[in-house]
Design brief:
Blueprint: H1 3-27, E1 34-36, E2 43-45, H2 46-62, E3 67-70, E4 74-77, E5 82-90, H3 92-96, E6 103-110, E7 113-121, E8 126-131, E9 135-138, E10 141-142, E11 155-160, H4 168-180, E12 183-185, H5 190-199, E13 204-208, H6 215-224, E14 228-231, E15 245-249, H7 254-264
Parallel strand pairs: 3-5, 11-12, 11-13
Antiparallel strand pairs: 1-2, 3-4, 5-6, 6-7, 7-8, 8-9, 9-10, 13-15, 14-15
Helix pairs in contact: 1-2, 4-7, 5-6
């Protein structure tokens, strides 16, 4: 793995993601176009396209031999050990209904493992950065996953894929988590939930079959903040998976949260 590439990528991401975030913020409550993206009610605006083009152009110029996959455009560039994942507007549905909970996410993968994750929350101007083996920060300050000894009085984030909808098992598990903990939080902006866990504002995350360009920056953010990410069988999550079922939390909470999830799946 080339450290120089990661350093250059980090500098580029810090600059371009803030530009994209400012663009999104300027269009909040002021976007011009809206179209349905799929049969599940997902939507897309011109802001998705504008921020995406800004980021993609910058990466292609700086790293022409890298591969890119972006939320709206799809695959670009040439096959490479280096893969960029871009979600130009995570939380578009929130953006459209005037809920100021959305972000932009850029991830650099090396051999299918995240090595750099950068997330920008436009409305609060929070810049989250995680670099493999170098920790995670929010506006330059280190983030640490908290260890709340009273887990069941804590807040657990729920993330599910668009296609899950009201799948019976998902509904059952979601309800079980909702009644088991103080609060079950569902933002519809997954990257921000991962950042909340890394920052110590959430006590755990349960993710049900939600894979996409917004996933791996968040996973790296939590791991570099001292958290763990495991599958529903308790195995450490590594690499990429098209249908992930994941639990993330402080290492001390692994057994308790895993047990709750398994109880909710019965």
């Amino acid at each position: 793995m080339d450290v120089q590439i990661i350093n250059e990528a980090r500098k580029l991401c810090e600059s371009i993601i803030i530009q994209a975030g400012h663009l999104a913020k300027s269009k909040f409550d002021n976007y011009n176009s809206l179209e349905m993206k799929d049969e599940f009610g997902d939507v897309i605006t011109e802001v998705d396209h504008l921020t995406e083009q800004l980021i993609v152009n910058a990466i292609l110029t700086a790293f022409p031999d890298h591969q890119i996959h972006s939320e709206e455009i799809g695959d670009l560039g040439v096959p490479s050990e280096w893969l960029w994942l871009i979600d130009p507007l995570d939380g578009t549905n929130n953006f459209v209904i005037g809920l100021p909970v959305f972000s932009t996410s850029i991830t650099l993968m090396y051999r299918f493992e995240p090595v750099l994750g950068v997330i920008y929350e436009s409305m609060t101007e929070r810049l989250f950065i995680a670099e493999k083996d170098s920790g995670a920060t929010c506006n330059g300050l280190p983030m640490i996953v908290t260890n709340n000894t009273k887990l069941f009085k804590g807040n657990i984030g729920w993330i599910q894929g668009h296609k899950v909808q009201n799948e019976e098992t998902a509904v059952r598990l979601r309800h079980y988590i909702d009644v088991k903990f103080k609060r079950m939080l569902r933002l519809w902006a997954p990257t921000l939930q991962w950042c909340m866990l890394a920052k110590g504002d959430l006590d755990g995350i349960v993710l049900y079959n939600s894979e996409g360009d917004d996933l791996y920056s968040g996973i790296l953010m939590v791991k570099e903040a001292g958290g763990i990410v495991i599958d529903f069988e308790g195995n450490d999550f590594i690499g990429m998976n098209n249908e992930p079922y994941l639990i993330a939390c402080h290492p001390d909470h692994k057994d308790d949260l895993l047990r709750v999830v398994n109880e909710g799946l019965r």
